[in-house]
Amino acid sequence: MNYIEKAAKIKPTARQIKWNQLEFYGFVHFGLYTYTDTETPDGSDAKAKFFNPIHFDAEQWVKAFKSAGMSALLLTCKHHEGFCLWPTAYTNFSVKNCPWKNGQSDIVKEVAHACKKHGLQFGVYLSPWDMHETTYGTEAYNIFFKNQLRELLTNYGDIFCVWFDGACRETKIKQDYDWDGYYALIRELQPNASICICGPDVRWCGNEAGVCRDEEWSVVPKEIMTTERNPGYWRQIDTIPNATWPDLGSREFISKGQELMWYPAEVDVSIRPSWGYVKEDDTKLHSLNTLMTMYLRSVGGNANLLLNVPPNPDGLFAEADIERLSEMGSALQKLFSNPAPLPENCVSSSFAAEHEPEFVYSSNRDTYWQSGTDDVSPALTLSWDKPIELDMAVIQETIEEGQHIESFDLDYLDEENHWKTFFSATTIGYKRICQFSKIKTKQVRFKVNASRSFAAITYLKFYQTNS
Ligand code: FUL
Questions:
Q1: Ligand 1 center to residue 238 CA distance, Å?
Q2: 189, 325, 327, 389: which is deepest, by most CB within 10 A?
Q3: What pTM was computed for the model?
Q4: Is pLDDT at 232 greater than 70 in this prediction?
């Protein structure tokens, strides 16, 4: 089997498919750094007294995320400064040691509860790098970390993801993380949870600017995961393949015989310049336009979008963030509100038994069009009885069968009956959102120019957005 055949055979786990379907969700950076303006602790537990979110309201966060159309919420239960938002039994540096609610609070519990109440999935971020914990740098830290993980994974209901931050700016102390032990514990206690970043399920897109590649492959060399597990190290030695490299999945890149894996990308970005709340940033939010571009390029470019919104010291999202989230939700709703009528006819150059072209009309993942194996340039042609105007398409590859398509065109039949290409791109993967100048036509063709194996499409839908 050559490397392309091998790549074409790599498939996601059911867990990874479920993760992909979440598409767009929110990050909440909240901790002691919300109050102290610095991540660096002074070594004592005393600073815990500054944590004082007098108006904390988890439902306010959850409702704001829902208004944006998000599917889940990921909370920094412990960030690099080591302060824990739940009353962990393993350190005093937590909510139980602050005057607020006489140390009787549990932020993680309230957020998990609000998510459940309003139908968002809940995920936990636990920073491996801990600047406060005295065992950091010794084997005892791994035990401490697993104990904390166990608390988070047993006391707060279903967890959709555990997020391990690869950041580590500590140069004097080196911690050997027991990654395999962490993963085993997660699989044991929350088998449906994806382990994102520094883990086996989801990779970092490689920047924090909200941008993914034009050609985003979910099948990449396994080395990318190995480098993610060595925080800080590969960033200094950029000769080792890592998540920041511009090409991770092209034929050329995977041709060196490396072991491959299914490792889809997640784009993480903050709505503001900082991850944690900074008052001066209240006027520096990303514009609606920028956020929409991030959405269209990531969710519409085979990556999930994780958008951070930091609560202020009162424990609330600021008005500006709430407004921007709701604007984004409305803009997304509007964008997808005017689908073209279903075509009267849909034919394909070939199809495999039981995978007829019409199956692309429904987003049901169990039914899909699949081209015949020997068809070198498979195509689907959609026809309407009357000319219609179109300016956007959503295409979803059947990732259950792998990621195959390397290049495709969208063509339309013009008034002189000539096929004209109006949109071209490379990969599709879980989803490709295609925006183009308005066309008016009775026939559109989706044509695959290069593919690693047969083409399989779960969903193909056209829109007239007038945007
Ligand atoms: C980075 C961290 O250092 C930031 O504080 C933030 O948590 C971001 C998501 O990851 O690496």
A1: 20
A2: 325
A3: 0.97
A4: no
Pick from 9, 16, 3, 8: nearest CA to 430: 16
Cα–Cα–Cα angle for 96, 97, 100, nearest 5°?
Answer: 75
CB 248 within 8 A of CB 217: yes
Can you tell me the distance from the alpha carbon of 278 to that of 313, in angstroms, rounded to the nearest whole number?
A: 9
Question: 176, 231 in Cβ contact below 8 A?
Answer: no
Q: Give the residue, out of 81, 162, 165, 274, with the most ligand 1 atoms within 8 A of its beta carbon, to mutate for a pocket test.
A: 165
What pLDDT score was predicted for residue 386? Answer: 96
Q: With cut-offs at 50, 70 and 90, classify the pLDDT of residue 400.
A: very high
Amino acid at 177: Y
Residue 72 tokens, joined: 């889940």
Q: The tokens of 360 are what?
A: 């692309």
**Structure token digits, residue 464:** 């007239």
CA distance 221 to 269: 24
Say yes or no to pLDDT of 467 above 80: no
**What mean pLDDT comes out for the span 181-193?**
98
Residue type at position 3: Y
